[in-house]
From TrEMBL, chain A:
InterPro entries, sorted: AAA+_ATPase, ABC_transporter-like_ATP-bd, ABC_transporter-like_CS, ABC_transporter_ATP-bind, P-loop_NTPase
Name of this protein: NitT/TauT family transport system ATP-binding protein
Domain ABC transporter per the UniProt entry, residue ranges: 3-230
PROSITE patterns: ABC_TRANSPORTER_1 (PS00211), ABC_TRANSPORTER_2 (PS50893)
SMART domains reported in the protein's UniProt record: AAA
Family the UniProt entry places it in: Belongs to the ABC transporter superfamily.
UniProt KW ATP-binding keyword: yes
Keyword annotations: ATP-binding, Nucleotide-binding, Transport
Organism: Breoghania corrubedonensis
Automatic annotation (TrEMBL), chain B:
Pfam families: BPD_transp_1
Biological processes annotated in GO: alkanesulfonate transmembrane transport
Name under which the protein is recorded: NitT/TauT family transport system permease protein
Gene3D superfamilies, per database record: MetI-like (1.10.3720.10)
Domain ABC transmembrane type-1: 89-269
Role summary: Probably part of an ABC transporter complex. Probably responsible for the translocation of the substrate across the membrane.
GO cellular component, one term: plasma membrane
Record PROSITE patterns: ABC_TM1 (PS50928)
SUPFAM superfamilies in UniProt: MetI-like (SSF161098)
Source organism of this protein record: Breoghania corrubedonensis
Locations listed in the record: Cell membrane
C-alpha cells in the first residue's frame, strides 16, 4: 500500500500551518520529515494517521493494505504513550484486544513481537520499571503487533539520551533490513534523518511547504559504517534548515 | 618538558604545604520527603490519653468537665456487655454502607458522564455546583417526608452527601487523564468503550480513590447528624441520649467509637489505594 498526499493545506484559526503539501510514500520506504519547530510536522502526521482532517486537500491510500494488517496506519509517539497500569505484555495486547483474535493467536503475536524487540524477559514489568529506551521498544513492539502497513513515527527517539538513541536506531535499521516496513518518520535530528531516511522531505518554516526532497540511495544497513559519505548530505540538509530555523526562531521571539 | 613537570610538582608541593584543612562539604539536602514513622501515630494517641487520665486522677481535670478515659472505657464495656453495642453499631454501619455505596456509585456514573459528554457537562456541572454546598442535613425534614422517618431518610442524607464530592472528584479525574493516551487508543482503532474502560477509568482512578477519603468522612458526619434527629438505634442516637442525660462518660465512649470507625475506614481505603494504584511510582 502506498500513501499519496494531495495538495494538503491546513490552518488553525488564522494561522496557516501547512501549505500545499503533495507527496507520495511508497511501500517499504522510510520518508523522513524535517523542518523547523512549529512548521506543522506533527500536524501532517496526524492527518496521515486519520486523527485529524486537513482544511483542504486529501490523503489517499493507494492499493489495499495487506490482508493480515490489523491497523494499517500505526503511530509511535515521542512520549511512548504506554499505559502505566499495564505490564509490557498488557500494553502490547491492548492494541490487539479489540480485534477479536483467538486468545492463543493473540498470545502468540505478543510473544513474537516481544522476542523481535528483545523484550521477552520484561514481559511482566510495569512501565515505571523501564528506562526510556525500553519504553520506546515496548511502543515499537506494540506497533509491530498490529502489522502496520505504514508506521507513523513522531520524533520517536527525541526523549532518549544519545547512546540509547544510537542503539534504537540500530534496532530500527536491523528491523527494516529483516522485514522491510514503510514509515513516515518525523525528526529534528539530521543525523537520524540521514541514517534512516530513503527520502528526506525538508519543510520550510510555518506555513510548512516542501522546500526540497533529498534522496539517499545508500542501503540502510551500510550507513553506519559510511557515515562520512553521508556527511555531505547532512551538510546540505543543515544549509537548508539553517536559514529556516533562524527565521522561525526570530518569528517566535517577535510574538 | 621536564621544566613544566618541575613547576607542576612545585605547585603541588606548595599546595600541600599550605594544606588547607580537608572537611566534608556541609550537607544541606534532606527533609521535605515524607517517610512514614510507624510508631508516631499511636504514640500521639497514647500520650494524649495518658495525660488526660493523669489529669483526671489528680483532680486537675474535674470529672464534671471531662470524665476520665477509664470511665469512658467502663461505659464502653457496659455497652458491650449489655449487647447494645452491636445494635447501635449494626444500625449505623448498615446506613453507612448502603448510603455511601449508593452515593459513590451514582456519583461515579454521573462524574463519568460529565467527564465524557459535553452535553452532560454543560447541563449538570452548574447543577452540581449549586447543590454541593447545600448542607444535606438541612434537607433531612424533606427527606423524612419523601423517604419516611425510618431508614430511608437517613440513607438518603448520606447518599446525597457523598454523591456530589464523588461527582466532582470523578470528572476532574477524567479531565486529568493524559490526552496522548487517549490519542494512542484512537490511533490503534480501539472502540469508544475500550478507551473508556481501559484508559479513561484507570487513569481517573487516583482521583476517584482520593475522593473516597473525603466522601466517607462526610458520610460519617451526616450519619451521626441524621441519627441524632430521629433514630432508636445508632451511634448518633446513643451519643444524643448520653448527652441529654449528661452521661459524659457514655458520650465520650460514643465519640471514640466514631473515631475508631474513621481510622478503620481510612486504613481500608489505604489498602484499596495500594492495590488499585500499585502501578504508580
Ligand atoms: N490543535 C491545535 N490548535 C491550534 N493550533 C495548533 C494545534 N496544533 C498545533 N497547532 C499549531 O500549529 C503549528 C504546527 O504545530 P505542529 O505541532 O504540527 O508543529 P511541529 O512541526 O510538529 O513542531 P515541533 O517540531 O515543535 O514538534 C504550531 O504553530 C502550533 O502552535
Ligand atoms: Mg511535533
Amino acid at each position: 500500500m502506498d500513501l499519496k498526499l494531495d495538495q494538503v493545506s491546513h490552518h488553525y484559526g488564522a494561522t496557516n500551518v501547512l501549505d500545499d503539501i503533495s507527496l507520495t510514500v511508497k511501500k517499504d520506504e522510510i520518508v523522513c520529515l524535517i523542518g523547523p519547530s512549529g512548521c506543522g510536522k506533527s500536524t501532517l502526521l496526524r492527518f496521515i494517521g486519520g486523527l485529524e482532517r486537513p482544511s483542504s486537500g486529501q490523503i489517499l491510500q493507494i492499493g489495499e493494505p495487506p490482508a493480515a494488517s490489523l491497523n494499517p496506519l500505526t503511530y509511535i509517539f515521542q512520549d511512548f504513550a504506554l499505559l502505566p497500569w499495564r505490564t509490557v505484555e498488557g500494553n502490547v495486547s491492548l492494541a490487539l484486544e479489540d480485534h477479536k483474535l483467538p486468545k492463543a493467536e493473540q498470545r502468540a503475536i505478543v510473544e513474537d513481537v516481544l522476542r523481535r524487540t528483545n523484550l521477552s524477559d520484561f514481559a511482566k514489568a510495569l512501565p515505571r520499571q523501564l528506562s526510556g529506551g525500553m519504553k520506546q521498544r515496548v511502543a515499537i513492539a506494540r506497533a509491530l503487533s498490529v502489522r502496520p502497513a505504514v508506521m507513523l513515527m513522531d520524533e520517536p527517539l527525541s526523549a532518549l539520551d544519545s547512546q540509547t538513541r544510537e542503539l534504537l536506531m540500530d534496532d530500527l535499521v536491523d528491523l527494516w533490513t529483516r522485514e522491510s516496513f514503510t514509515a513516515v518518520y518525523v525528526t529534528h535530528n539530521l543525523a537520524e534523518a540521514v541514517r534512516l531516511g530513503h527520502r528526506i522531505v525538508v519543510l520550510s518554516r510555518r506555513p510548512g511547504r516542501i522546500r526540497e526532497i533529498v534522496e539517499i540511495d545508500m542501503p540502510l544497513a551500510e550507513r553506519k559504517d559510511r557515515v562520512h559519505e553521508l556527511e555531505v548530505k547532512q551538510h546540505h540538509l543543515w544549509d537548508l534548515m539553517r536559514e529556516e530555523a533562524r527565521a522561525a526562531d526570530r518569528e517566535l521571539a517577535d510574538v | 618538558m621536564s621544566e613544566t613537570t618541575m613547576t607542576n610538582a612545585d605547585i603541588r608541593e606548595a599546595e600541600q604545604n599550605a594544606a588547607p584543612i580537608a572537611r566534608p562539604v556541609p550537607f544541606r539536602g534532606g527533609g521535605f520527603v515524607y517517610k512514614p514513622v510507624r510508631i508516631a501515630g499511636p504514640l500521639v494517641f497514647i500520650v494524649l490519653i495518658a495525660i488526660w487520665e493523669f489529669g483526671s486522677d489528680t483532680g486537675w481535670i474535674s470529672p464534671l468537665v471531662l470524665p476520665a478515659p477509664s470511665e469512658a472505657w467502663t461505659a464502653f464495656m457496659n455497652l458491650v456487655h449489655s449487647g447494645l453495642l452491636w445494635k447501635h453499631l449494626g444500625a449505623s454501619l448498615q446506613r453507612l454502607v448502603i448510603g455511601w455505596t449508593a452515593g459513590t456509585a451514582l456519583g461515579i456514573v454521573a462524574g463519568l458522564a460529565i467527564g465524557l459528554f459535553s452535553v452532560a457537562r454543560s447541563g449538570l456541572q452548574p447543577l452540581v455546583s449549586a447543590l454541593f454546598p447545600v448542607p444535606k442535613i438541612a434537607l433531612l425534614p424533606l427527606f423524612i417526608i419523601w423517604f419516611g422517618i425510618d431508614e430511608g431518610s437517613k440513607v438518603a442524607t448520606i447518599l446525597f452527601g457523598t454523591f456530589f464530592p464523588t461527582v466532582i472528584s470523578t470528572y476532574s479525574g477524567v479531565d486529568n487523564v493524559d490526552r496522548t493516551l487517549i490519542r494512542m487508543g484512537q490511533s490503534f482503532g480501539l472502540s469508544w468503550t475500550s478507551i473508556v474502560r481501559k484508559i479513561v477509568i484507570p487513569g481517573a482512578m487516583p482521583a476517584i480513590l482520593s475522593g473516597f477519603r473525603i466522601s466517607i468522612s462526610i458520610a460519617i458526619v451526616l450519619l451521626v447528624a441524621a441519627e441524632m434527629i430521629g433514630a432508636e438505634y445508632g451511634v448518633g442516637a446513643y451519643i444524643l441520649m448520653a448527652g441529654s442525660l449528661m452521661a459524659t462518660d457514655q458520650l465520650i465512649a460514643g465519640v471514640a467509637i466514631l473515631s475508631v470507625l474513621g481510622l478503620i475506614i481510612a486504613w481500608l481505603i489505604g489498602l484499596a489505594e495500594k492495590y488499585f494504584l500499585r502501578w504508580r511510582t
